[in-house]
Amino acid sequence: MDRSQNASPGVSIITPTHKRVDLVTQLLVSLQSARQRYPGETEVLIVDSSPGFESEQILKACKDRDATYHAMSNNVRQKRNWGIENAQYPVILFIDSDCIADENLINEHARFYESDAIPELGGVVGLTNFVGADNWVWRIIQRSSTLDVFSYPKCHKVVPWGPTCNISYRREVLEEVGLFDETFPFVLGGDDTDLGLRVTDSGHKILTNELAIVDHEKRTWTRVYDIVQRRFRWGRMHYYLMQKHSHRVTVVPPTQTTIFLVLAFLFLPLAFFSSLFYWAFFPLLWLILEILFEALFNSRGKGRQPVEFFYAMGASALTLLYQVGTIVEGMKNLSVMPLFKDASITPPSKDGRVRGLAQLWAKIMAFPISVMFLLLVQFILGS
Question: Is residue 6 part of a domain?
Fold first, then answer.
């Protein structure tokens, strides 16, 4: 049956995956329900890089639930680009394989494209809720800035970008800005940010819809190695985003990592060329105290102490890990830009302001206490 783009436009749903047989099957079941509730045309494209038996299982799940299966190499940007290039319909909806679609997900995305009331509309970001069992790693993640982007629809009407676990775009807009950038040095990270920023910079708007909901499994995020690797990789990719979107880069107050490196540059030679060897520990002492104070400020009035204090410390460590990733990548490319500049890519939020104030006061308070402690050490050793 023929339908115009403005009356229930056709929607192509694209999901890249690697292994995750049970999660993909779960996603396809949820999408089957969402497709049945949508009056327009739909298709689901599963782009998979699983080996052997797992690929056969995912192929079978696709056949059982009217989804198109395509096998290719394990590069998420190439997978999504293949999906865009082979999609039939004018609206492209991205959803990740570790998500479950709400039964109204497609309707809630598509209704924004049903009229020309917003001619500059480029995309729509939905709300991502995380579901499943908690552990201590997840509670640390919750208290960091890691999850801010997934709840954009609760705080903002228009955003510069959104995560590809729950975002739709006009296909023509994606073709206009050039799809996902496959030249980035890592196979994961930063691609959704880069694409969204290019859509925004081209004059299109990315709106939010709190009713376009997916449930995201926590279990793919709750291992220590996974979140450490993810945060560090995101930090490294942030350097390349700064390079590519240089018009968004401005001078910013120094981060913990920058201050630590400056202190190391000042105090290590002092300790080396004098008998005051213990002043070599000043940078590390300052950093430890900064993290402790920041955790103290961020955990005040939140649940049980000292458990909340421990979680807040972990959240500060994740922030530090991201900063280190950006600076390391800058140094690898012989650039000091990440030491004193940053790219403005996220809209302001109340939680972000609170975390920023806690970090500022922690930086300030760590200085005099570090100095007093080492002066005390100097006095004791000198007496």
Answer: no
